Amino acid sequence: MPALPFYLLSAITAGCAIGAVALRNTVTAAFCLLGSLLGMSGLFVLLDAYLLAALLVLVYAGAIVALFVFIVMLLDVRGSDSRPTTRVSLAAAGVAFAVLGAGLAVTFGRNLLTTPAPLAEAPGLGASLKFYGEQLFTTYLLPVQIVGFLLLIAMLGVIVISKRFAPVEDAK
Amino acid sequence: MTVGLDQYLFLSALLFAIGFFGVLARRNAIVIFMSLELMLMASTLALVAFSRFNGTSSGNVFVFFILAIAAAEVAVGLAIIVALFRHRKTVMVDELNALKN
What we know:
The complex is a heterodimer.
Chain A: H1 3-22, H2 26-46, H3 50-75, H4 87-108, H5 129-137, H6 141-162
Helix pairs in contact in A: 1-2, 2-3
Chain B: H1 5-25, H2 29-54, H3 58-88
Helix pairs in contact in B: 1-2, 2-3
């Protein structure tokens, strides 16, 4: 596997992720998240998951980050995050970050697999839409139905949460 | 210098930890939500890397479902934040202490 593109893309991804978490301005943080997502989709391309890379950009960058920026614009909470985070919560978050990161790094820090499986063995890699469609409508048919139902429920929930219901007139 | 599964998993763990830090340290509910998205994304990277290095495609198909769940989660979560802002005029989590005590 090529080393230089991986390190370049992972530097972009991790750097933008740190920016998204650490920057005070919410809009800047949203754009850092966008940069991190683009780096991640580049990593997906390196892993031969071209379709998922395109989907990640479409769904996350196209829909989710746009929604975040839209909500920030709508609420206009600019400048209200100026009060610094309390020292205790910052210290606790730092310790949790260190422990979680170290634990995960130790768990993964053994030489697991260094060479990827050959492409011919894995039909789902690459850009074969046909394979994904076949999988989604045979092996994963039930999950697809459940996710569709979940999306419907989420849509109804959003409508119920965000609609202002007028009080019923003849209740009295 | 070759790039193996280790490097991808390490990056995934790093991104997950960064997102976790953001969830714990930030006070703005919108930024906390962005950090949550970052954590979801990190797990996605681990799934794709496992899938590639093991030569199976289940992980890749699973990422589809994660994307759908993330979309639903963002829609509902942002609607809750907007409703919260309408009632309390703030999105700072340390001022939302109605259930404390």
